[in-house]
């Protein structure tokens, strides 16, 4: 509550001198959460785009022709496993075990990398058979939505690798704990978005 | 987080401002098991297709909503108390905007399509004046 220093009726020179302690980064988690909410809006717009354009095939391939559900299921599993292993990393962090934290982060990064590899394989396969983003409005919306999610995962991976190095160099100092907690929100948030993607794009696409 | 004893060793990065929640191993495992179940059922419904298209779609969407809630509670540790309730308020605001965006886009564009495409087939279009 740093904004309590209202000027009305206050004698000249009144300041909140006795402000209680605000540790460094005390507002970081809330700020990061609000960033995630704004990210959520980006995805909402992309989902809305896909919902509107997803049926415009331009006489091209439809989801039923293109998507392979076992591949989507495998991808979902990879991201879900990476979520639980990141949870284990957080538990290790709370226990103050930096070695275990880094080990779980490595496992998380590997699952994330597997997810990304499968997605890139799917994209190259689609482009190879001519289902490029230019083919139809449906494919433009699909590549934009799923590609944006993939980009987020890529940056999440960069962040995870950064944290593995940072924890290795500095240990579990408060700043690193804060960063790991932000990354935790980010990573789990991406899994939440993926629930929307596999449901709305892959599963509902098969019913279209 | 009443049973959270692991966090005692946690350094005081957010003081007593009611910072972001912590999970316990129990939270994570419950969340994981629920997520696996809530993922497997919709995939099974669509791959094996035991039901008609309509009910399958509704069920699949329903499972997604439940799974998102599970992730929010068990992985993101959402509750009404973290950060003094501000995370929850931000989330509710976001959900309202998302709802407006989604329903608004679909509503408007559905009617746009309905009004602008009286000719469903290209073959019919050729014989029309």
Give structural notes:
The complex is a heterodimer of chains A (208) and B (129). Chain A has helices at 28-53, 63-66, 69-94, 98-128, 137-170, 174-207. Chain A is an all-alpha fold. Chain A has a domain at 70-206: Cytochrome c oxidase, subunit III, four-helix bundle (Four Helix Bundle (Hemerythrin (Met), subunit A)), CATH 1.20.120. In chain A, α3 packs antiparallel against α4 and α4 (98-128) runs antiparallel to α5 (137-170). The radius of gyration of chain A is 22 Å and the shape is elongated. Chain B has helices at 25-48, 53-74, 86-116, 122-127. Residues 1-19 and 124-129 of chain B have low confidence and may be disordered. At the A-B interface, α1, α3 and α6 of A face α1, α2 and α3 of B.
SSE topology:
The complex is a heterodimer of chains A (208) and B (129).
Chain A: H1 28-53, H2 63-66, H3 69-94, H4 98-128, H5 137-170, H6 174-207
Helix pairs in contact in A: 1-5, 1-6, 3-4, 3-6, 4-5, 5-6
Chain B: H1 25-48, H2 53-74, H3 86-116, H4 122-127
Could you list some keywords that capture this structure?
heterodimer; A: 208 residues; mainly alpha; Four Helix Bundle (Hemerythrin (Met), subunit A); 6 helices; elongated; B: 129 residues; 4 helices; 0% strand; flat
